[in-house]
Write a structure and sequence with these properties.
heterodimer; A: 82 residues; mainly alpha; elongated; B: 140 residues; 3-stranded antiparallel beta sheet; 5 helices; 65% helix
């Protein structure tokens, strides 16, 4: 793998992980997106900041979606998570 | 080491202390009389809590932020952003638990009421998120 293609790989990986984090395991894929975005930041500060923001946003939005989904699934069960 | 922190690093450390303290305060009142803290939920001391071990992540995130604040100096840009990412990952894991409690409490409003501990821990997590954005967008 050439050095020049690595930033593109990190950018694509970060975006894909951010998209997955919106619908599946946000802490895992959001965390992966943040780590990949950090590698982008090391090579290009401005672009890295944007991808870090996108990854953090995806992590937070994914968390909210998952929490609402989990609550709606368990609302018919008895009590407060009991 | 705290003095060698960026602004976001300092905010993250304070937010971590807030989260850690609030973990032991009452979060919700269930069934009218039962006050339940994060520790009670994690420790299963209030009954059969589903996936109780997950609640330890809420404490873990706070402790992680405190440890980063007192062990790592974030006075260089690369270290500052690296530590902000670590804080955000820890905060992301912990905030999922808090959001789950909020969603469950709001879905069962007639049985569960939110207490001061959950509000404080929520503000702590908001502080962790704000500290992340402060550190990555800082021009220092």
């Amino acid at each position: 793998m050439s050095e020049s293609s690595r930033p593109t790989l990190f950018i694509v990986g970060s975006i894909i992980c951010s998209l997955i984090a919106l619908i599946f395991l946000p802490p895992v894929f959001g965390g992966a997106a943040l780590i990949l975005a950090y590698h982008v930041y090391k090579q290009n500060e401005h672009a890295g900041r944007i991808y870090l923001t996108v990854a953090a946003g995806a992590l937070l939005v994914g968390n909210v979606i998952l929490a609402i989904f989990a609550a709606s699934q368990s609302v018919s069960s008895y009590g407060f998570g009991y | 080491m705290f003095n060698r922190q960026s602004k976001g690093g300092k905010l993250g450390t304070i937010a971590g202390i807030v989260v850690t303290v609030a973990f032991f305060l009452p979060w919700v009142k269930a069934c009218g009389t039962l006050n339940v803290s994060g520790y009670d939920l994690a420790n299963k001391s209030t009954g059969m809590v589903q996936d109780a071990w997950l609640y330890w992540f809420a404490l873990f995130a706070g402790l992680c932020c405190i440890a980063l604040g007192f062990l790592v100096a974030t006075d260089t840009p690369l270290v500052r952003v690296r530590m902000a990412v670590v804080r955000m990952i820890a905060g992301g894991i912990g905030s999922l638990v808090i959001l789950g409690v909020w969603a469950a409490a709001l879905a069962r409003r007639e049985m569960v009421s939110v207490l001061i501990g959950l509000w404080i821990v929520t503000f702590g997590y908001i502080g962790i998120v704000v500290s992340f954005f402060m550190d990555i967008w800082s021009e220092e």
